[in-house]
């Protein structure tokens, strides 16, 4: 008898293991299907469905099958049991059922109105995974990869415009969506579809902030494939990366906005507290991410110089790089900051410093590893979005709300792109043309971040309505706008097939004449950028990488002993040999690595001349969205005695 | 008020997310520490602590800190609540506590005696992860990597011996441990430390089977680093890989062994059913794993030939490879078979066929990806083992049982290695010397698999005692034996610093004289191997890869239209150009890739001669543990008219 009981218990447990396997297998199967489809499409140069769109479609079909084909054996799960002895929900609950103790783990709080939705199907519940998996495991590689693969040169050329779109644009978008939705909510209350006090203005703003995170991954993939104008690509990519960060912090700040009395009235102190929260969280996350990257750079730098053997262990190097970057995310989350922002800036900083210290093998390994993880994570998320339409059990689809959200999203995008582009064009020499603006307007797709933010909290009815609506908007934008990218490009007559480096040079050349006049008058405006640039080039780069001039030449004379200690022997060699060449090559290295097709034509004979020109162009190009200023890059290595900036 | 409540709820939820981040951060931190330590050790050529030992040590320290430093805020968790309304434990439980409904998820069944152990610390509970994570996520990459990186040539040279050690040896080990433990259990009952009917003979056998999975990763790493004799390396590696598979299936079969009446009496029908289960599960898993690999090979083959563009998308290729290999594991688990066995043979088959079809970029990507995943997964498991000593809450340490297990493990290893080596040496020409046998005896470390099998079921007291004991044995063997490998090698006077290919040639040359005489008499004994070899070389290799002769030359004449369809155009070209060269190079390719230091000296001038010699040697070397037989490899490409085997 006892033996038989054990037998049954083992069987039961096996059943549980197999369940986990079945769910993972479903995801694997969906991803395999997606890859095969995409591969077929790529072969036939069919660009109307991107892999993410395909993943979503297969997810949708699978969700439909799971929902309507599998049975629901779990009859008990809809019933609510009373427990008078407990005061609050403990994290683990031991329950004695017919003389057998079972352990239950706390999952979440459920609103009373959702209880009926729980007469579910065990399979559906198992296919729904914990939102913290999105945040802790699936999103970090995507965001890190975005930061790591940023084309720095083009990014810094357009930094001012990108920052404007990301910060100002996202704020505008959030407020516009919030206001429009508040109007629709009022209308819904009027029509009796909603109760009076259920949906506050802060909820509308919350929805606005989460819907402001754009994710034009489909569009960018097509841009990349067709070699669309690099400025357009960079503007869109930079905007979408930073705007995710801004939208996440904004959502966080709004969710902890707590006016003292009437939630609808404006409370100035609470408002300013929210603004303070926003700035604090953003700055803190930025600092957290960058410092992890600096630690990685220092470790990898130490490896290379003091203990020269690390290049023999690319595995350890790659492992350390991976773990420290992920730790940046996790530490920020653990500290109550925003991990996504931390991991984004960690990626950017890693690419700027650490990448230069890695052994050639590790450079390739890290690049391929993050590329692969990005690919998998992205497709898993889009599959899951497809699944969620049918497997999520508490959808609330309100036609008026959905219609309102669609309108709001487009109006908000328009009031972000067009006015800001107009303002930016006042300052920019290289104007953002009308067709680029239309393309940016068109590329306002919503994706993984909006979904992840919406699924994080689906307890109350307003939040469920937001989640269902966000999901539909993601479907709509990814399929309709993602599929329409290629026709739109040709309709707007945007140039394709451009070599990004040739393009940059041509633009720089055409600007140089007008630049020279403005240099002296406007040079002060870009002082912050210039100081940072000089500081980075003269102190940080030499300290953290092998690029840049040796510290002995940049630090004052009395620091020489320290400087000598901190400078790697190879820096001297490289520096004395190549002068500024090394710096420029280092700066371009990442760009080159990410664009195998781009060949930078450096004539071998006239080396110093052409390189100095490229160097200058690089700095001239560093506009802050307000124009182009020539930065007086001093050739520190060649003239070590003249290198004071002030 | 309502707003305030929302505020609190968001805060709470944030708290939950951060918790997940904190736990992951702890693991990251441990892994970073491990990597830095190992890197330091490697630089100083300090070989007494392998990375897994280091990971375990850091895990132990962290477990100690978590256990004794963090407070236990969760007072409720030790209490058991009665629930009269429920008949069985549903997978989700909704409970109304002070007018708020909470959702709880089923975790596991708890024996009454464990309830007191649950007055735990929430942190400890959170650090304890679900055993299914081990099985579904951490083990597959380790086992796949073992299969994928198998040095096929050396493996097949020693196949017979390896199979003997793995199947017969594991069975012996299981029975010996079971018998010794049964003796100790009887003694414990006699001393009153255990109740009469608590611990059956099947439980002892269960313990025996799980303790039979050896994991000499530490020893193998040192062997690899020091270039120890390749035969010893291969014997040990092959044995440990296959023996994991055997031990897992054995554990599974024993756990579902269910005699009708008295569990202690021998029930012949149940016993044979168990043997049948073992064979069925093993064969089924083998078939499942291989067929996934064959599908992958076919897809990658199709990619290369029919649609030549896939090499442009190494990401898709790598993704597909990764997902299909993982699916082999998950499908086997979902079908009630053993995923570990499936993924092991999937890895071997992928290396044999698919690897040859991949683009050079994908070859490197897959190799590095699996290497990296293996590295991470292994260290996570060993960290977790260290943690588990202090964080697992139901340890039962019984000194007598632990002492008995230690004795049993060593006696079992001795009665596995020495008698089987003696028997094998009767047949082997290349004898297994005495010092190799001692080294194999010494390398009987226990590791990840034993731990994973033990943690899978820790509900009853016997199982908990087994888990605690297994954990201690892992610690003991990894630290003591792992640390003692280098002294042991020099004490046993085992040669190090051997170039594996030179070694193979020297051995083959010394054998060739004695071989030639035995060829004709013993050739029939190896008929199974020969038929498989011929079939593989003439039909499977050409069908699934670009190696081997074109199918048009190996299939009968009337199959020509089909053969032409199935053969890739490149196979013709390569084949006609190189003859057998291609085959041999393909066979060696993986070996070469995994040993960057090994240079195979192929003189460029006398190409055909030397290569044909290598080819023959390769086949001569294919002993089945019973001797060495020369296999008449027919040069099919050169003589397409003579190639009928029968």
Automatic annotation (TrEMBL), chains A, B:
It is a multi-pass membrane protein. This is Sodium/hydrogen exchanger. It is found in: Cell membrane; Recycling endosome membrane. It comes from the Eukaryota. Residues 33-491 form the Cation/H+ exchanger transmembrane domain. Belongs to the monovalent cation:proton antiporter 1 (CPA1) transporter (TC 2.A.36) family. The lineage of its organism: Eukaryota, Metazoa, Chordata, Craniata, Vertebrata. The chain crosses the membrane at residues 20-41, 53-70, 133-150, 162-185, 235-258, 278-301, 335-355, 375-394, 400-424, 436-455, 467-485. GO terms for cellular component: plasma membrane; recycling endosome membrane. Keywords: Antiport, Cell membrane, Endosome, Ion transport, Membrane, Sodium, Sodium transport, Transmembrane, Transmembrane helix, Transport. Pfam families: Na_H_Exchanger. One of its GO terms (molecular function) is sodium:proton antiporter activity. One of its GO terms (biological process) is sodium ion import across plasma membrane. Signal peptide: none annotated.
């Amino acid at each position: 008898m006892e033996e038989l009981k054990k037998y049954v218990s083992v069987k039961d447990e096996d059943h549980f293991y197999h369940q986990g396997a079945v769910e993972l297998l479903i995801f694997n199967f969906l991803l395999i299907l997606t890859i095969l489809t995409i591969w077929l499409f790529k072969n036939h140069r069919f660009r109307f469905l991107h892999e993410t769109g395909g993943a979503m479609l297969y997810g949708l079909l699978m969700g439909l099958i799971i929902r309507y084909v599998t049975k629901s054996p779990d009859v008990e799960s809809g019933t609510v049991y009373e427990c008078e002895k407990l005061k609050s929900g403990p994290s683990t609950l031991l329950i004695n059922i017919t003389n057998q103790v079972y352990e239950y783990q706390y999952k979440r709080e459920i609103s009373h109105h959702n209880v009926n939705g729980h007469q579910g199907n065990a399979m559906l519940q198992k296919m729904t995974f914990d939102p913290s998996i999105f945040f802790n495991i699936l999103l970090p590689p995507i965001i890190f990869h975005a930061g790591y693969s940023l084309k720095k040169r083009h990014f810094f050329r357009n930094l001012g415009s990108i920052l404007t779109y990301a910060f100002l644009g996202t704020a505008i978008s959030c407020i516009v969506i919030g206001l429009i939705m508040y109007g629709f909510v009022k209308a819904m209350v009027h029509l009796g579809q909603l109760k009076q006090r259920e949906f506050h203005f802060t909820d509308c703003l919350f929805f606005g902030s989460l819907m402001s995170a754009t994710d034009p991954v489909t569009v960018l993939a097509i841009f990349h494939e067709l070699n669309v104008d690099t400025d357009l690509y960079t503007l869109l990519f930079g905007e979408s990366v930073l705007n995710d960060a801004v939208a996440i912090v904004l959502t966080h700040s709004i969710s902890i906005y707590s006016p003292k009395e009437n939630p609808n009235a404006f409370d100035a102190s609470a408002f300013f507290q929210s603004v303070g929260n926003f700035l604090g969280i953003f700055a803190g996350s930025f600092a957290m991410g960058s410092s992890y990257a600096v630690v990685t750079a220092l470790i990898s730098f130490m490896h290379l110089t003091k203990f020269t053997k690390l290049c023999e262990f690319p595995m350890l190097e790659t492992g350390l790089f991976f773990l420290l970057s992920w730790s940046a995310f996790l530490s920020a989350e653990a500290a109550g900051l925003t991990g996504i922002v931390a991991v984004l800036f960690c990626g950017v900083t890693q690419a700027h410093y650490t990448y230069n210290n890695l052994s050639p093998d590790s450079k390739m390994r890290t690049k391929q590893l993050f590329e692969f993880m990005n690919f998998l994570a992205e497709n898993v998320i889009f599959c899951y979005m497809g699944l969620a339409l049918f497997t999520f059990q508490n959808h609330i689809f309100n036609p008026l709300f959905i219609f309102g959200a669609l309108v709001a999203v487009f109006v908000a995008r328009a009031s972000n792109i067009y006015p800001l582009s107009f303002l930016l064009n006042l300052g920019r020499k290289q104007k953002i043309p009308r067709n680029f603006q239309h393309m940016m307007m068109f590329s306002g797709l919503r994706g993984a971040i909006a979904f992840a933010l919406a699924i994080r909290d689906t307890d109350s009815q307003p939040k469920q309505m937001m989640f269902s609506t966000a999901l539909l908007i993601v479907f709509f934008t990814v399929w309709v706008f993602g599929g329409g990218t290629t026709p739109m490009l040709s309709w707007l007559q945007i140039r394709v097939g451009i070599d990004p480096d040739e393009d940059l040079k041509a633009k720089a050349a055409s600007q140089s004449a007008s630049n020279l006049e403005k240099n002296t008058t406007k040079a002060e405006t870009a002082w912050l950028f210039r100081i940072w640039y000089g500081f980075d080039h003269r102190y940080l780069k030499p300290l953290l990488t092998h690029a840049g001039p040796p510290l002995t030449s940049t630090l004052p004379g009395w620091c020489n002993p320290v400087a000598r200690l901190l400078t790697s022997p190879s820096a001297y060699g490289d520096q004395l040999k190549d002068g500024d060449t090394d710096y420029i090559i280092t700066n371009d290295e990442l760009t080159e690595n990410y664009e195998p097709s781009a060949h930078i034509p450096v004539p071998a004979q006239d080396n110093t001349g052409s390189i100095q020109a490229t160097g200058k162009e690089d700095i001239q190009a560093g506009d802050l969205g307000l124009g182009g200023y020539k930065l007086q890059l001093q050739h520190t290595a060649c003239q070590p005695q003249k290198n004071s900036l002030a």
